[in-house]
Design goal:
With 59 residues, the chain is mostly helical. It is built from 3 helices and no strands. Helix 1 runs antiparallel to helix 2. The chain starts with a helix and ends in a 5-residue tail after the last helix. This is DUF2273 domain-containing protein. Keywords: Membrane, Transmembrane, Transmembrane helix.
Length: 59
């Protein structure tokens, strides 16, 4: 299991533990899962934080 997958799983489990259900719980699970996936992708090196700060070159 990659760190990205573990981060996604951790975020989803945190959301499940935090919420009891409903539409708001679903949205919160999606947001926390995305945050977990993002942090895991940063740790795996799939996302370069320096490139996020620089932006796209113009011209």
């Amino acid at each position: 299991m990659t760190t990205s997958a573990a981060g996604l799983l951790a975020g989803l489990l945190l959301a499940l533990a935090w919420t009891t259900g409903g539409f708001t719980g679903l949205l919160l699970a999606i947001v926390l899962g995305g945050i977990g996936l993002f942090v895991g992708a940063l740790r795996d090196g799939y996302i370069d934080p320096a490139a996020l700060r620089r932006g796209r070159p113009r011209g």
